[in-house]
């Protein structure tokens, strides 16, 4: 084994090892709205579900130059977001929205995908997404470095409305068909992965 002490690595080196090891990661493609009404759309891959008692998911948004990114600022201001799961056919559009824009610019201008009104929140979603969740902010956790400076904005979001394409969800069983969803996962750097082969393994009682 190769042994590396975290305290002897730079932050960049630590992040490189972390993002290359925790794979594959689902991509949360998130719409939020600024107080000025600008719709922001951006992808984040430090995300997961966190509870079996409440419909909660977490999204970690790394700060840029010490400042919260637009998605984080909008969530803190308006407490609402639509989280979309990224399918293979949306990968290129998703990547386009990772561009750095000023807060008064919308990533929607970079892609040709229509919005759809949400049912319970003000923020709209992407019509093309096969799965989207209308969410409200449940808990905010500022992640600080050892000097007390916020380096990451961690959001726990509560899903208020689930939206599924009828090709993805079998309603009687509530079974989500992963092949029909065709999800894309993030690896390290500019690399991504498709679902690939799956298998079943039942837990022991």
Q: How would you sum up this structure, described in words?
A:
This protein is α+β, with helices and mostly antiparallel strands. It has one domain (10-189): Electron Transport, Fmn-binding Protein, Chain A (Pnp Oxidase, Chain A). It contains 4 helices and 14 strands. The chain has helices at 11-21, 70-78, 91-96, 178-181, and strands spanning 25-26, 28-33, 39-44, 47-49, 56-62, 80-85, 115-116, 125-126, 131-144, 150-164, 169-170, 175-176, 184-186, 192-194. It has a 7-stranded antiparallel sheet with strand order 3-2-6-9-10-5-4, with helices on one face. It has a 3-stranded antiparallel sheet with strand order 1-13-14, with no helix packed on it. The longest helix has 11 residues, at 11-21. The radius of gyration is 18 Å and the shape is globular. The model has no long low-confidence stretch (mean pLDDT 96).
**Which class of secondary structure composition applies to the elements?**
alpha+beta
CATH topology: Pnp Oxidase, Chain A
How many strands, which pairing sense, and closed or not: the largest β-sheet? 7 strands, antiparallel
CATH H-level name... which superfamily? Electron Transport, Fmn-binding Protein, Chain A
Helix content: 10-25%
CATH class label:
Mainly Beta
Gyration radius (Cα, Å) is: 18 Å
How many separate helices? 4
Which range does the strand content fall in?
A: 35-45%
Q: How are the strands ordered across the major sheet? A: 3-2-6-9-10-5-4
The number of domains is: 1
Can you name the CATH architecture? Roll
Overall 3D form? globular
Unreliable runs, pLDDT <50, ≥5 residues?
none
For this structure, the quaternary state is single chain
């Amino acid at each position: 084994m190769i042994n590396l002490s975290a305290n002897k690595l730079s932050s960049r080196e630590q992040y490189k090892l972390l993002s290359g090891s925790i794979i594959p990661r689902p991509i949360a493609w998130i719409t939020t709205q600024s107080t000025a009404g600008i719709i922001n759309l951006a992808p984040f891959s430090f995300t997961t579900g966190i509870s079996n008692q409440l419909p909660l998911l977490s999204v970690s948004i790394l700060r840029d130059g010490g400042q919260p990114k637009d998605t984080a600022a909008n969530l803190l201001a308006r407490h609402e977001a639509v989280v979309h799961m990224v399918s293979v056919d949306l990968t290129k559009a998703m990547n386009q929205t990772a561009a750095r824009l000023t807060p008064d610019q919308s990533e929607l201008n970079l892609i040709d995908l229509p919005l759809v009104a949400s049912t319970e929140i003000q923020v709209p979603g992407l019509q093309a997404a096969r799965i989207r969740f209308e969410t409200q902010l449940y808990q905010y956790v500022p992640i600080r470095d050892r000097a007390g400076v916020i380096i990451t904005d961690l959001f726990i979001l509560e899903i208020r409305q689930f939206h599924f394409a009828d090709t993805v969800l079998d309603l009687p069983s509530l079974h989500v068909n992963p092949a029909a969803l065709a999800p894309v996962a993030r690896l390290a750097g500019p690399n991504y992965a498709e679902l690939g082969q799956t298998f079943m393994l039942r837990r022991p009682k």
